[in-house]
Specification:
This protein is mainly alpha-helical. About 80% of the residues lie in helices and about 0% in strands. Bound molecules: fe (ii) ion (FE2) (2 copies). One fe (ii) ion binds next to helix 1 and helix 2.
């Protein structure tokens, strides 16, 4: 397990983008992949909100507020996808919409992380990484109804 909150979040981002790429291609999209991607997105966002956002809010209030609004847009995008058949014609445009939201968010979040790197020391990053993994675990029971 990685012990640095910033590295841990970056690794999740790579994994999330890769899964969204798969979900965009009909032959590779499956309800199982969607379920895993959805679970990872939910738990990742919750984990961030409970750790890095909470910790950096006082230093970067506006950035954190913007990021929270982006998380909510992503949640709305996921709610919409929940209503759509993977094999139907609406699937690809809807997953592309979600991907655009996620990419935009990850780009702005990477800037937030770079700023946070300047004031979080190693031990705090370690402690936040542990809390992040725990928070993600708490959310992993949240599955598609
Ligand atoms: Fe993130
Ligand atoms: Fe995020």
């Amino acid at each position: 397990m990685d012990q640095d909150i910033i590295e841990t979040i970056r690794q999740d981002h790579e994994q999330i983008l890769k899964m969204l790429d798969d979900l965009e291609v009909h032959d590779r999209a499956s309800s199982e992949t969607y379920s895993v991607a959805r679970g990872l997105l939910y738990s990742h966002m919750y984990g961030e909100e409970m750790t890095i956002y909470e910790r950096t809010r006082s230093e970067m209030y506006e950035r954190v507020e913007d990021s929270l609004a982006e998380h909510n847009s992503i949640r709305i995008g996921l709610d919409r996808l929940d209503q759509i058949e993977i094999t139907g014609t609406e699937w690809v445009p809807a997953i592309q919409d979600l991907k655009r939201l996620v990419r935009f968010h990850i780009d702005s979040e990477e800037r937030l992380l770079r700023a946070a790197e300047s004031f979080l020391d190693k031990s705090e990053r370690f402690e936040l990484a542990e809390r992040f993994q725990r928070a993600k675990g708490e959310q992993s029971g949240y599955t598609l109804a």
